[in-house]
Amino acid sequence: MLVTLIRRYSKPYLPQILAVLIFQLASTIATLYLPSLNAKIIDEGVSRGDTDFIWRTGALMLAVAFGQVLTAIAAVYFGARTAMAIGRDLRRSVYRQVSGFSAQDVNRFGAPTLITRGTNDVQQVQMLVLMGLNFMVATPIMCIGGIIMALREDLSLSWLVWVSVPILIAVVGYLVVRLMPLFRSMQKKIDSINGVLREQIIGIRVVRAFVREPYEAKRFGEANRDLTEVSVKIGNLFVLMFPAIGMILHLSTAAVLWFGGQRVDSGDMQVGALTAFLQYLLQILIAVMMGTFMAMMIPRASVCADRIGEVLDVESSIHDPGSPVAPAEKKGRVEFRDVTFKYPGAEAPVLSNISFTAEPGQTLAIIGSTGAGKSTLVSLLPRLYDVASGEVLLDGVPVTELDRADITSRVAAVPQKPYLFSGTIEHNLRFGKTDATEEELWDALETAQAKDFVQEKSSGLNRRVAQGGTNVSGGQRQRLCIARALVTKPKVYLFDDSFSALDVATDSRLRKALREKTQDATVIIVAQRVSTIADADQILVLDNGRIVDRGTHEELLETSPTYQEIVESQLAAEEVA
After folding, report:
1. Are 447 and 514 in contact (CB under 8 A)?
2. % of the chain surpassing 90 pLDDT
3. What is the pTM (predicted TM-score) of this model?
4. 398 forms bridges with which residues in the sheet?
5. Kind of pairing between the strands at 492-496 and 411-414
6. Which domains are assigned to the chain?
7. CA-CA distance, 173 to 340, in Å (whole number)?
8. Among the residues of 154-212, which ranges form H helices?
9. Closest C-alpha among 27, 294, 298, 6 to residue 136
10. Predicted confidence (pLDDT) per residue in 284-323, tens digit
11. 3-state SS string over 351-409?
């Protein structure tokens, strides 16, 4: 998967990669040429006392060194730009893929691991590409070229190369094999600590309300300790790696000086040749060391690439139709035909044999106990999930045959947990209709009973909103989300328990204003409070995922025991209060 990802995302940058390879090649050749020039100065210039030769060869050495520096800088510059561009494209692909996931797909992976895969995992692959572009050409050429040049200087000392290089490769290979499973475990531990931290941040109010800080601190401590233990094991291997490499380098240097010194003493070898051989041996070992850095990064990057590939290769559980159907009319008629839905892995369906019709100009209400399947039911219309059997129709066409853009233009949903994005109130209201006028925004705010508190601040529509809307109250957040839905002026409104945080008076004013603005639209309301749905044209009573009763408020009071229990429980609660 690592090779596949790099190949796929490096194609647009082949010219830059070619430039990096050329500069790396030039820099490596210059590096290999310098020891040979140094040997000539010692053996031919110094020994003969030829000053002109020393100046000429020294000037050539300076020119080669200067060229080596320039080509090395150019290689690193283009390599860094290319690696960052590949990382950018890869992050964008992961983001777009996750953005197209259905709620079912997101639940399959989990938010913490998706965040890690789109950030930390991509960064590991990006860093491997950077190291690869910097060392990919230099390492093999330096190693092979260094061996050839060393053998040219003195063939009898070549056995030092054949001994030291395999030993170094064996040590590095053993450590890399040990590192692979640890890096895989490390990424999972990062997922875990991200999940715990994300839960604590999102649920900080609940944590503080129940005084669970010590418990959450313990959870985080355990996740943190697990990550630390894996990191320490990896660090221990790194601690072994660098001293081992250093020892091999120093022993090789000592061996060259010992055996080479004997050859110099016997007159079989020149001092310059010995110096050059030593430099070439060090270059060979340094090349192997650079390969070591690559080898250390490959296991972790390979694990990360596999995790990224799992996300990119997932085919969304909800597909857009190949040939979308455009409904002949745009009225907002909603129909459920014998719908059954079951969450993946669940033993029993959440909804069973649901059938009803909601006509334009009418209000359909859904009520039932907690866990009856109310929110799941309304999430089927905008295709957050697809049904297991049966059909959901919008204006006579199954939603599976409609383009998603067509669905969202007709259906506006206010979720059970209202969410606002960081920015301004104006930015949030225009989320569903970017070209909405300021007059339309204020009109929607007035209908949603949010105009007063928005006007209280001098900034008005430019008032800043924190991520998630945490700097406004729950009721204000709900009203702003309702206003956002009203701005789009759809044909179908879905209110999933969107009035629960409002007081009775505000709830009454809001519903009255809504009736005036949604006279030609289909309104579907999920509610816990009977007073919110008492004036609905039709009320569905859900129990254990089935419609047990349906009718108006008055009809259900006479015929539905389940509805009567709900009404009586709420009246009793009001009396107690």
Report:
1. yes
2. 2
3. 0.69
4. 393
5. parallel
6. 2-312 (1.20.1560.10), 334-576 (3.40.50.300)
7. 55
8. 158-202, 204-209
9. 294
10. 777 777 777 677 777 778 888 888 888 888 877 777 777 7
11. EEEEEEEECCCCEEEEEECCCCCHHHHHHCCCCCCCCCEEEEEECCEEHHHCCHHHHHH
